[in-house]
Amino acid sequence: MISLVLLAASAGAVVAAGMQARAARLGLASAAHAVRRAHHVGREQRLLAEALSKLAQVDAVTEGVALGTDVVKAVHLGIASVPFSVLEAIPVTRGVTKVVRGVHDVVSHTIYGAIGLANRALGVGLKVGVAATADKKARQARVPAPKGEPGK
Question: Hey, CA dihedral for 68, 74, 78, 84, is it positive or negative?
């Protein structure tokens, strides 16, 4: 009878030890997954910071081009207005000068407008490219959940 009790106690201890070992293995696997996940989260954060930096650079370049275009346009139209004003002051050349000045100004505004449009379109295209590259890198950085932990 005592031997049966000892045998039952031993069997219980073996089962308990097995359960503890299994729990320890699961805990270790979960901790290892948490470390891998933290590593990949850090990588995704670095990728996000890189993408945001590139987007800021695109904004800076497009804003710089827009400012430069505005300055050149203002200087160009300012310089061009001097001879037009002189020629408009002369009665004999006034009519033709007004027509030429009108054509000049329309063409100038059209060209500077096209430069601005191209600059904005290029900026949008670069931003789309940066976002697509960042998305691709982020997808590559993801790690699947380990077996036995669905959805984590």
Answer: positive
What are the φ/ψ torsions at residue 149 (nearest 5 degrees)? -130, 65
- Give the N- to C-terminal CA distance of the chain in Å, as an integer: 49
**Strand (E) positions, the chain?**
none
What is the 8-class DSSP label of residue 39?
Answer: H
Handedness of CA 45, 47, 48, 49 (dihedral sign): positive
Radius of gyration of the chain (CA): 36
Cβ atoms of 119 and 69 within 8 Å: the answer is yes
Tell me the C-alpha distance between 146 and 152, whole Å.
8
Instruction: Report the distance separating Cα 14 and Cα 139, nearest Å.
Output: 45
Integer Cα distance of 100 and 57 in angstroms: 41
pLDDT digits (tens, 9 = 90+) for 62-112: 999 999 999 999 999 999 999 999 999 999 999 999 999 999 999 999 999
For the stretch 85-99, pLDDT in tens is 999 999 999 999 999
**CA 66 from centroid of its chain's CA atoms:** 21
Domains of the chain by residue range: 2-141
DSSP-assigned letters across all residues of 30-69: HHHHHHHHHHHHHHHHHHHHHHHHHHHHHHHHHHHHHHHH
